[in-house]
Each structure stands twice: as structure tokens, then as C-alpha cells.
Amino acid sequence: MQLKYGKQGGVLRVALSGELDQHAAAPLREKLDALIAEGADRIEFDMGGVNFMDSAGVGVILGRYRNIRRRGGSFCVSGAKGSVDKVLRMSGVYSLCTERGGK
Amino acid sequence: MKNYLRTSFPSVTRNEALARGVAAQFCMLLDPTVEELSDVRTAVSEAVTNAIIHGYGSPDGTVVLELESEDGLLTVIVSDEGRGIEDVELAMRPFYTGAPDKERAGMGFAVMQAFMDSVAVESEPGKGTRVTMRKRFGTDE
Hints:
- The complex is a heterodimer of chains A (103) and B (141).
- Chain A has 103 residues and is an alpha/beta fold.
- Chain A has helices at 22-37, 55-70, 82-90; strands spanning 2-8, 11-20, 42-53, 74-78.
- Chain A has one domain: 2-Layer Sandwich (Transcription Regulator spoIIAA).
- In chain A, strands 1-2-3-4 form a four-stranded mixed beta sheet.
- In chain B, a hairpin with a 3-residue loop joins strand 4 and strand 5 (128-136).
């Protein structure tokens, strides 16, 4: 699991790649929460490079959604392909995505 | 042709990738589509993770992965001798999780059911859990 990120005006953009399972979940969670704590009111996940993800990945994504919501922020997930997209869709993750400002 | 493989490994999350890799390699003999292969990888990862996290919750356990194929029908059995599940029906309900503190999504069984043709769970508290999943290959258009 690799992570690339950029921050601009409170928007944290995270590009994930590799395999996101329970083994990868804990270190990823810590890293993302540290980045959010540094100051972010929006997190945007680019899942384009993720070639495997199971429900452990959904747990990480939903956990960061809750984290950013607690700060009054918003969230978006995009770019997922194949079975990664299927897992995200059936978990209802896309329905939580909003524009910046909570629309 | 009938084929089978039985393997076991310690209950550590590092082995999730190993287990789905073994399952995917076994499936290569069934001439799978890309989608069929990733379906099996995902379902196996869910079942193995459940055994590791919920079945044992420690690295001292052994997870058994059994794969069988005959005439395009794949059977995957993931079993553990861990804590077992009190209420299988509840555990299989989408968004229910037995480990809310671990930030699990509660989607494991739902994913297995979505990605395989059938999923059966046998469990006894204190004895362990056995998940049997089946998928017929070659049905994609």
C-alpha cells in the first residue's frame, strides 16, 4: 500500500495504490488521521492505483469520513476500478461523497 | 479434471495477501476472467481476515485454506479453531461488526456473498468457524 498526498487550502488529496487489506489498514489509518489533524476540512481519495481492496479498506475509508465529518468537513472517493469499485458501491461509500461545503 | 489444495498458516494479517495469492494461482487452472479472479481474491481475503481478526484475534492460531475444483466449479473452505460465532445470522448482516473498536465495516460476509455464488457458515462458540464458498467459472459472457 502506497500513499501520495497533497494539501491545498484545507483540501487533503490522497492517492492510494497497491493492496488495501486488514494488514495495510492500521498504518494507513494512522497516517491519514495525522494528516487530517494537521488541518484539513476536506479529504479526497483517488483510488485509481488500488488494485485490491476488501471490506477492511471500506473500514478505513468510512473511519476517515467520520473523522472529517467531526471536524465539519467533507469527503469524496473517486477513481476506483473493477472489484474495488464494486466493494465501495455495495458499502454505500459513494452516497457519502459531497462537494466542498457539504452540498 | 479434479484438483485440490490444502494449506494452513499462522493467523497474522500479513498472510492475507499470501492466502489470496494462493487462491488466485489455484484458479488460474480454471482459465478465469479477470473479474472472476478478483472476485475470488476478494472473497478469500474477507474469510481469512475474519478468521484472523475475529476467530483468533492473536497470532497463535492456525487458519486452514482448502481449495477444490471440478468441472469449472470452485469450492473454497476457510476454517479456524478460534472463538466461533454465537449468532451466525447476526454476524452475516450487512454493517454488523463483531469488532467495532477495530473500525471494521461489517461488510465481510456481504462481500463474500456478492462475489461468490454461495456462502455457507458453520460455527460453534469456543470451537471455531468454517466458511464454505462456491463459484462456477465460465458463466460470464
